[in-house]
Amino acid sequence: MAHSAPPEQKLKILYLITKSNFGGAQRYVFDLATSMHALGHDVVVGFGGNGLLAEKLQAAGIRTVSIAGLERDVHLTDDVRTFFRLLDLFADENPDIIHLNSSKMGGLGAVAARLWNGVVHVEQMTTGYRRSARIIFTGHGWAFNEDRSDFSRFVIGIAHWVTIALSHETIAVSQRTREQVISLPLVWHKVSVVHNGVGTFSPKRRADAQKALFGDRQEELLAHDPIVIGTIAELHKNKGLSYALEGIAQLKKQSTKPFLYVIIGDGEERLALEHLATTLDINDVVSFAGYKPDASTLLAAFDIFLLPSITEAFPYVILEAGNVGLPVVATAVGGIPEVIDDMHSGILIQTKNPGEVTRALGHLLDTPERRAEFGAAIKERITGRFGLATMVTETLRVYTPPAPPKKETAESEEVVADPTPTPETQKED
Length: 429
Hints:
The chain is of the alpha/beta class. The protein has helices at 24-38, 52-59, 76-93, 103-127, 150-166, 175-179, 206-214, 218-221, 241-254, 270-279, 316-323, 354-366, 368-385, 388-399, 410-417, 423-428, and strands spanning 12-19, 42-48, 63-66, 97-101, 134-139, 169-172, 191-193, 227-232, 259-264, 286-290, 304-307, 328-331, 347-349.
């Protein structure tokens, strides 16, 4: 039986994630780990590699474990080693909560955690004191939404189903993310929505942000006082940045307003995107800023935020951009429509559609009052509904569900009817 701790009990929480870079899923783990640690819970984070997530957690005083051989790609020998390493880790840490993140860690971790819980259950029957762990899986987005063959999507769907089935509860970061899996057999009741949330943070002032972003090119790039459109993203195909560049090329031909499009981030598609910008003859209005640590602190350098993703779950960057009052143009995928009310707190566009990019950005370039209106509306929405404290509180409810009510029995009714306490009733009280 899975252990459900009472709300006042301090929990031993083990967070696990495949990669230790600092994308959205890693940001989620960091925010939860540091928040739970601040509440007095005992927190450990395990991951593959040794990236920025590890550095940030260690700086925050969170204990970390690097899992050797853990990588995103399937590698049978390394995956078997990882599986047994997880069993050792569970035995060493004896957690109340095992919180799995990302597809690879979700699958391996759920199987290993169930096996470990079985061993613990046997020990419970013989010793009476060991408790099994509650297994939580967070779906940060489903890999079957990516551009893959039908067969690959089917296999990935089966893997996701197994992970959800083996977990005690799955957290979906958006309503749309939940809807995509609740039709799977035997798991609909195991999936709860807990939206990502952002805390208050202090972005750099506009002048300081632009200096940090543009460096020696600041005077050149800002010579004509352009309206700055910005994107923060890992540069891979799912982010739809090629369609954004094509839209920017059309905008350059149509708009009379000076503008600059800045892309913060790095990744496998960078060279291809730079080549496309050259081919489209837009290098004079496009700047590839590369990877910037703590990129969200530079948001004040922008006037408009653009996210042209082909697939998303519930992107933090939208919350961060909205939190500083930037009007947002984004594709209507995943949980983005749960944040942006079209033409009220931003503009929603179709995926893979350069014309819609051009139309939406052109509208905001021409209407500064709309930029201010949309920016104020999305900031109010995020502050009210998508705060970090809300995410932490709702996650704790998933960790510690209420105990089912006790069934009334004939014996209990007799005890209640008798006002004289007995040793047994005194013990129960």
